[in-house]
Amino acid sequence: MGKYRNWPISRSFIIKLCLISVWLFVLIEYCVANRQQVLESFKVSSVEAAATIEDDFLMAQSYASSLSQQMSKNIQLAELQALYHPAASFLHYFPQYDNFGIDPEYSSRFNINGSLLGLGHYQRLDGQQFQELSAALALGIRPEPRLGLVWTYYTSLAKFSYIVPGVSVSQYQLTDDTFASDHWQLLLPENNPTANPVVSDAYQDAAGEGLVVSIASPVLVNDVFKGAMFVDVSQRAWAPEALWKGSIGEFILTSRQNQVLATSVVLSDEQLTAELDYRDFLSKWDTTWLGNEPLVLRYPLLDGQLQLIAYIYPSTLVWATLWDISYELVLMHLLLLSLYLLYRLRRSLVFQRYVAAHDSLSGLLNRGAMSARSEEMRMRHQRFDEPMSLVLFDLDHFKSVNDNYGHHTGDEVIHAFAKVLKNVSRNVDLVSRHGGEEFLAMLERTDINGAEAFANRVLKATRVAPVSGKRLTVTASAGATQLLVNEEIDSALKRADKALYQAKSAGRDRCISLLP
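Given the sequence above, the corresponding structure tokens read:
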């Protein structure tokens, strides 16, 4: 039996090993159960992201639809000769661009916040088309940056556009290609008989605003297609970084043609504009060491015109689950550190409370802290029927000190006076910097005579108070009063302020006391 007594594995070690084994078994079981919870969390964040993106697009689409309805009404009014914009009479042809627009010298006169661009010469327009042009100018479109819109514009079947904010014809011109584009063709009645809003693929903005998506709402007048209202939404609006932040999975926003519009994976501008198919995208960025297919969730948006694809790889799911469990593993090891941090936090809170309650220059209570603590003093004053007084001080000619000696010396004067207040007052008294060069003292168990005596001691000490070695005599004026039973502090403070004013008027460097 002697050889077993020297066995290096003790009974205590075996017990600890068993406890650790049980603990690990519980954690593994918890890990398996937690995996489903992590997966559900991913699904919830995916649904929330889809709802956020769709809401943003729906707001832009609703804005385009409301402008479309307004444009339809404007055209009808213009055709009835009840609406006319005077700028329509000052069109100018730019032969170098084969475009027409408002003569630049008249744009500011009519306070036009957009630009009118038309293909070819304006003389080709007939009477109804001129009326439609006038109706567009009268729309009164305003920029809507809160919706993430970079451009808002009306494009007519008569081949002209009114664009807000304005852009010069040298920066952008209408061409035949503009009206041959897929996005415009999708709006025509033969391709869109129900006149539904249409969302384009992402494209690089011709005016340099980066990647944008156009949302267009057809404009009909008596069921006749006239044109469409467009709002161009910037990528910053439809794919904010905050939308992906914190999710364990990845997201891809695609068009109906599977073009990648945005993704939570960081890509360069060249990659984003390469019109990647999302299926190639998943293959390209599949870096899972498990070699399994990712779990893919698809959320159609705007009746299938957009699609949010959320995906997570098995390896990511495993690591996310282990990350949650790791908290349980290290919790006990961090207990002592947590206690230490709580101690440091308590000290920090005490310091922060002190900073929040005291004026940084004088070291006295600030106005907010004085208001709270003086109210507590007033309650004791009422409860025990003890006298309570307050004294309001104001440094004399303080502005002259700042003007003649500089603000640094002014700060030293405030600091010196605050030191006098601290030295003369008792521990039970409250002293504060009331604002600027004004100071307030709340005196517990002190009647009006005691308050006046206190004020005179402060004024006397102030006259001889040193100010950084400068030969500068500082004086102050004071107004004292006693708080009546059931009187509010604000009422007494007004009386003290009145007494202070009398002390100032009487020549300064003195205390005046007032009772009701």
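The chain is about 45% helix and 20% strand. Try to locate this feature in the token string yourself.
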